[in-house]
Write a structure and sequence with these properties.
The structure is a single chain. By secondary structure, this protein is an alpha/beta fold. It has twelve helices and six strands. Bound molecules: fe (ii) ion.
Length: 258
């Protein structure tokens, strides 16, 4: 490991306490041609639907952070393009983070990003997030200034919460926005949540208005009190009018949970 890597890790460790043990370096050179090919297949399979049904903030963010179809992303290069726009970084981590580490990173505008990629026999779904879910699904939205502010605010609110009930309610806000969020845009419903962006099946369920799906107008109290079953296609989603709405919701939620 060269000294610049050690220095950058020290700088990150100074800022991040709970998350420090989970920070890793992305070993981009270690990805195999097969892993790059899996990325390419995942991206090329999703883009036709997303060009039609993803919100403009996602599609613009995709271009702005310089994602490419033919190779796995270099997180440091993504961050170099993202940082000047919104102050966000895509920061490599070893896997799932404990809640305090996760919220600490969001509050510091560092998105915990996994570096592994799924295998060919799990193209549609992985129980744990991989680099496709994290970078293709989440990171383009971090180039949008208001979404960027919302996500930091969300991390700050959660970092200050102690009660399990309050954190569960805030988890629902994350679920119905960051993961499964939809937005009204030019008279249509467009997707912005990573769970919809990165999953063909989940997204198709929304754009084709699958059986049993209800799209309600976003209401922070309803969202905080809607129990989520992660094992099923989502029966209810909440559509926002603008990203300002979820920024305000994250602020308001602080006084409504627990
Ligand atoms: Fe996610």
């Amino acid at each position: 490991m060269d000294t610049s890597v050690v220095d950058s890790r020290k700088a990150e460790s100074r800022e991040l306490v709970a998350a420090a043990p989970y920070l890793i370096e992305q070993d981009w050179a270690a990805y195999t041609p097969e892993q790059h090919a899996i990325w390419t297949e995942l991206v090329t399979r999703r883009m036709p639907q997303l060009r039609e049904h993803a919100c403009s903030a996602y599609l613009e963010g995709f271009e702005q952070i310089g994602l490419q179809e033919d190779r796995l992303p270099v997180l440091k290069k993504v961050s170099e393009r993202l940082q000047p726009r919104t102050g966000w970084n895509s920061t490599a981590v070893s896997g799932f983070l404990p809640a305090d580490a996760f919220f600490e990173m969001l509050a510091a505008r560092k998105f915990p990003t996994t570096t592994w990629i799924r295998s060919r026999d799990a193209m549609e779904y992985t129980p744990e997030p991989d680099i496709f879910h994290d970078v293709f699904g989440h990171v383009p939205m971090h180039a949008h200034p208001v979404f960027a502010d919302f996500l930091e605010q969300y991390g700050k609110v959660c970092a200050g919460l102690k009660s399990a009930e309050a954190l569960e309610q805030m988890g629902r806000l994350f679920w119905f926005t960051v993961e499964f969020g939809v937005i009204h845009e030019a008279g249509k419903i467009k997707v912005y949540g990573s769970g919809l962006i990165s999953s063909h099946g989940e997204c198709t369920h929304v754009v084709e208005r699958g059986a049993g799906l209800e799209i309600r107008e976003f209401d922070v109290d309803q969202v905080l009190n809607t129990v989520v079953d992660v094992s099923k296609m989502q029966p209810v989603l909440y559509a926002i009018e603008s990203f300002e709405q979820i920024y305000e919701a994250a602020k308001e939620a602080e006084s409504r949970v627990g």
